[in-house]
């Protein structure tokens, strides 16, 4: 499975990593504990089984829209096989347009197979994962871990693909860091 991910500017990445560390310092599941070299704050736009060269080219063209504004708001909690604590991303019109464009490119690609239905336009809940774990619970108000005011702003500056089979990433689209 391949995911298409947006990456934040360096200052926003540092803020998210501080939150990861604050959660880990309390002994709770945090992305700070995920030691794989590809682990970094990101926003998943869509997934696909395969990414043919033509699809990569179309995605790179769509991602020329970067940089885009980034707005983080409060905490989200998802439950399922693994529970997830996340920092909500408030999508503006530009981000929603990019998301829909990326989704459409992947849906129209040869061999796409199965895109994750929760990432479909209208169902997508944009967020940056802060922690995940089976049965994990992160009790308390947002300001327990988030900066005062629980909001942060920055920019989505670059994009990458993540291949879950090889556990590798590749830059796609502009690099404006």
Automatic annotation (TrEMBL):
InterPro entries: Cyclic_Pdiesterase. Keywords: Ligase. It holds the Pfam family 2_5_RNA_ligase2. Residues 156-177 are annotated as: Disordered. The keyword Ligase applies. One of its GO terms (molecular function) is ligase activity. It comes from the Bacteria. The keyword Oxidoreductase does not apply. This is 2'-5' RNA ligase family protein. It comes from Streptomyces arboris.
């Amino acid at each position: 499975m391949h995911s298409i991910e947006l990456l934040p500017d360096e200052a926003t990445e540092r803020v998210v990593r501080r939150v990861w560390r604050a959660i880990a310092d309390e002994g709770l599941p945090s992305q700070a504990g995920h030691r794989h070299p590809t682990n970094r704050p990101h926003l998943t736009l869509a997934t696909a089984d395969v990414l043919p060269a033509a699809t990569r080219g179309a995605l790179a063209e769509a991602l020329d829209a970067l940089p885009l504004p980034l707005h983080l708001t409060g905490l989200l909690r998802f439950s399922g096989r693994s529970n997830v604590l996340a920092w909500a991303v408030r999508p503006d019109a530009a981000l929603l347009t990019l998301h829909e464009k990326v989704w459409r490119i992947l849906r129209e690609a040869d061999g796409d197979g199965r895109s994750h239905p929760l990432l479909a336009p209208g169902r997508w809940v944009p967020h940056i994962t802060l922690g995940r774990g089976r049965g994990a619970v992160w009790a308390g108000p947002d300001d327990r871990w988030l900066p005062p005011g629980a909001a942060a702003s920055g920019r989505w500056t670059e994009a990458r693909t993540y291949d879950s089979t090889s556990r590798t990433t590749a830059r796609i689209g502009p690099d404006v860091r």
